[in-house]
Amino acid sequence: MVEAARSDARLSPVLTQATSVVAARGEGVHVYDEAGRRYLDFTAGIGVTSTGHCHPRVVEAARRQVATLVHGQYTTVLHRPLLRLTERLGEVLPEGVDRLFYVNSGSEAVEAALRLARHATGRQNAVVFQGSFHGRTMAAASLTTSGTKIRAGIGPLMPGVVVAPFPYAYRYGWTEPEAVRFALRELDYLFATVTSPRDTAAIFVEPVLGEGGYVPAPAEFLTGLRERADRYGVLLVVDEVQTGFGRTGRFWGHRHSGVRPDIVITAKGLASGFPLSAIAAPAELMDRAWPGSQGGTYGGNAVSCAAALATLDVIEEENLVDNAAQMGERLLKGLRRVADAHPVVGDVRGLGLMVGSEFTGPDGVPDTGTATRAQAAAADAGLLLLTCGPYGNVVRMIPPLIVTAEQVDAAVEIWTDAVARAAG
Ligand code: PMP
């Protein structure tokens, strides 16, 4: 039985685990436990191993870099992998948003974006959307409302954070246009009543609400945010930590809307599992960062940068962005068939290979129990999945972008039985 448990009692209980699997190795879309049992990994290390586990190109690039230079420390010496990566990222980032700064994790990059926004505008406040996840370090946690477990008991949190509603249509029982109209109207109301635009540095948004329940931001919503950002001189920061690097079937999640961001935050899929994150901004904005105000011992690590360069090659050569779009459609269709047969799955939604099934009771009340049982039944049958949402009642699928039609179909088959067993 693959159950949610800590597999070592000496590990701190802050570490909660979705399964008790101890992974011995990974290859492509699969991980293997120590007994040699194979699992279809539709978690991809929370959206990190987008090129699959141990892609040979990434492994080779990292191996070569390990033998050449592991650590240079970018405030001491620069190195070629970082310089080459900066050039390559400039080619895939939105036009003109091509000045970069590197750190190690999503949370640190969020902090870096906040510092840049405050330094560049001379303003303090940040608008975030209810249900968003931006990280666990103190400022990032202050921006995070995906669940109180991230915020509870650690206050006082950073002041100056204003939480606006996200257009989560299913939750409100509205159509998407209704939810967008509501969310934008409430945002305007907040600008009129709580945070003067003159005090507001930035709006932070995820193109798909991730940890908060896998809810895509409608294009009209992002367009509305851009309009307000332009009107008020507020920066639009897109947190692409989970949605970037092809995950949603476009290279960046915000590309579905066509809006121009002021700051892009990227991590996770960027380096196929090696720790690396970055923020990008146009030159006129990045030039307003205060020299020496940011940095970090490991930022822009040489092996991570080499892995990121190989990741970009693999995404391009193996057409992984298109594959994410196609496989995402196939997965969505399969999951919708399951939902049609089981009313306990109230909504199936997503963009590309970032797809969630939300479990609710007849009156729309979150059904965490059935979601958790379905997740456990899937793990028993060899399919690793994660939940998300403040109630843990959304089961998400976020496989590597290399996933094939056969693997998607195999996952849907396991999921069909798992939901039947859980709902049973
Ligand atoms: N932003 C988003 C959108 C995320 O999904 C995450 C991680 N789930 C983070 C920030 C924080 O990233 P990290 O865990 O690397 O600090």
From TrEMBL:
CDD domains in the record: OAT_like
Q: Which reaction does it catalyse?
A: (S)-3-amino-2-methylpropanoate + 2-oxoglutarate = 2-methyl-3-oxopropanoate + L-glutamate; 4-aminobutanoate + 2-oxoglutarate = succinate semialdehyde + L-glutamate
Task: Show the GO MF annotations.
Answer: (S)-3-amino-2-methylpropionate transaminase activity; 4-aminobutyrate:2-oxoglutarate transaminase activity; identical protein binding; pyridoxal phosphate binding
Q: Which Pfam families match?
A: Aminotran_3
The record's section on Gene3D superfamilies has: Aspartate Aminotransferase, domain 1, Type I PLP-dependent aspartate aminotransferase-like (Major domain)
Q: What cofactors are annotated for this protein?
A: pyridoxal 5'-phosphate
* Keywords of the record: Aminotransferase, Pyridoxal phosphate, Transferase
| Recorded family membership | Belongs to the class-III pyridoxal-phosphate-dependent aminotransferase family.
Q: What is this protein called?
A: (S)-3-amino-2-methylpropionate transaminase
